[in-house]
Amino acid sequence: MKVLIVDDEESISSSLGKFFKIDDIESDAAENGYSAQRMLRENPYDAALVDLKMPGMDGLELIKWMRSEGFRMPIIMASAHGEIEDAVKALKEGAQDYVVKPFDPEEMTIKLKNLVEASNLRAVVESNKSGSAENKTTFIGESPSVIKIREVIKKIAPSNATVLVTGESGTGKEVIAREIHAFSSAPDGPFVAINIGGVPENLLESELFGYEKGAFTGAVNRKTGLFELASGGTLFLDEIGDMPLSLQVKILRVLQDRKITRLGGTTPMPINARIVAATNKNLEEMVQKGTFREDLFYRLNVVRIIIPPLRERSEDIPLLAASIISKYNRSMGSKIDGFAPEALEALKKHDFYGNVRELENVLERAMIFAEQNVITLSDLDLRSSVSRPDVQNKPKEVLQEAVSLKEIEKQAISRALQRWEGNRTHAAEELGISRRTLISKISEYGLE
Ligand SMILES: Nc1ncnc2c1ncn2[C@@H]1O[C@H](COP(=O)(O)OP(=O)(O)OP(=O)(O)O)[C@@H](O)[C@H]1O
Ligand SMILES: [Mg+2]
């Protein structure tokens, strides 16, 4: 793993660099935004740590530039002044995290590692040690459509069928891909993800197919492609709608023949990776326009999972919000334990055009601002998008006291139990938790 440290104070970069080395993290230092730009163009980095205040181009500008140029690695913003507003701006521009100087290098190392691990922007190869699907992120929600999606996943995951997942940005397509892998017949095999849109077109083919030594100038060694790497596991082709037409035909051939030939190679090799593809584009429309091959579309569309936008399933918001808050409580060390009723109501009414990702951003910001252990309406910044009138006019539940995260969970469990007339196995399945966990929660909440 290689990190770019952008800081005008040379002493910070060099001491941090030394610290990273202990953990086998390589790093380069750039002393200002301009040299950072040059280095980013010339080297691949897995993450960037960017100082906010720098002479010339400041950190915010650099982040903006990086995102506009398509650099998608995780970015951590460092600010010497601890100015919350800048931190929020940085998060808006696409930084994943921020730290206030002076920071603890050890904490920074952990943050970096976690972010890089979570980043779906590069090809990731993971070997899943624990075979059970229980500890994995499940696709959270209790709306009928989410329940249906979880059922479909369980049903089709064990087969080898190709799956196409579609939905707006931030609806959880990657979560679904991972869940399919977790419930597949080979959950211990690798989960390999590639973001088609994130790889330059000229590298995409060799990334996917690999090459033999000497296949082209610069091919000094043999390279294994992702189809091969994913053998015995799952290959997640994210943003498949960004696949250039010239490559689409080659992908089609792999799906048909279940064989690949490395670039410059002669012998085709069998491929036994499960393929999951995802996109937020309208592939049917692309097929009509001739920008996506119809035959490839049908090859991919064997099983289709369509994730509805979050604004069409606002019932999922309380549960999602509760799970997001617990997650950030753990990583931020905060102790938020619920919502003021108006806050939860506002979240449910808001049209999240950025879907669950926007919900996460809104809540993360709210948690930074929250002065008590409950998120209030004034902590939420929901101005960014417009509410649709029909959603606005929905009858409101009138609640008096703050709604705790536990209460949200309790309600979800009791509703699931009601739906299944007390059948715990079914209720647990629907909730995406183990039966054991359900039983212990039932007694915790006194739902017997
Ligand atoms: N149902 C869900 N349960 C739990 N977490 C979810 C759910 N849906 C989305 N998320 C979370 O929301 C964020 C966005 O999800 P994800 O990256 O899978 O979206 P996506 O559809 O792949 O978006 P994009 O098209 O922008 O790549 C992630 O942090 C993910 O963990
Ligand atoms: Mg995605």
Task: Describe this structure as you would to a colleague.
This protein is of the alpha/beta class and 448 residues long. The chain has three domains: 2-118, Rossmann fold (3-Layer(aba) Sandwich), CATH 3.40.50; 124-308, P-loop containing nucleotide triphosphate hydrolases (Rossmann fold, 3-Layer(aba) Sandwich); 311-444, Orthogonal Bundle (Helicase, Ruva Protein, domain 3). The protein contains 19 helices and 18 strands. It starts with a strand and ends with a helix. The model is unreliable at 120-135 and 386-399 (pLDDT under 50).
Short characterization:
With 448 residues, this protein is of the alpha/beta class. The protein contains 19 helices and 18 strands.
Main sheet record: 6 strands, mixed
Helix-strand category: alpha/beta
Tell me the strand percentage band. Answer: 15-25%
Strand order of the largest sheet: 6-8-11-14-7-15
Low-confidence stretches: 120-135, 386-399
Helix content: 40-55%
Principal-axes geometry comes out as globular
Q: Over the alpha carbons, how many angstroms does the gyration radius reach?
A: 23 Å
Query: What's the helix count?
Result: 19
Q: Which small compounds were modeled alongside the protein?
A: adenosine-5'-triphosphate, magnesium ion
CATH superfamily of the largest domain: P-loop containing nucleotide triphosphate hydrolases
What is the annotated CATH architecture of the largest domain? 3-Layer(aba) Sandwich
The count of strands amounts to: 18
Count of all domains: 3
* Overall mean pLDDT: 86
Gap between N and C termini: 50 Å
CATH topology label of the largest domain? Rossmann fold
Level-1 CATH class name of the largest domain: Alpha Beta
Keywords: ATP-binding, Nucleotide-binding, Phosphoprotein, Transcription, Transcription regulation
Domain Sigma-54 factor interaction: 139-368
GO molecular function: ATP binding; sequence-specific DNA binding
Protein name: Sigma-54-dependent Fis family transcriptional regulator
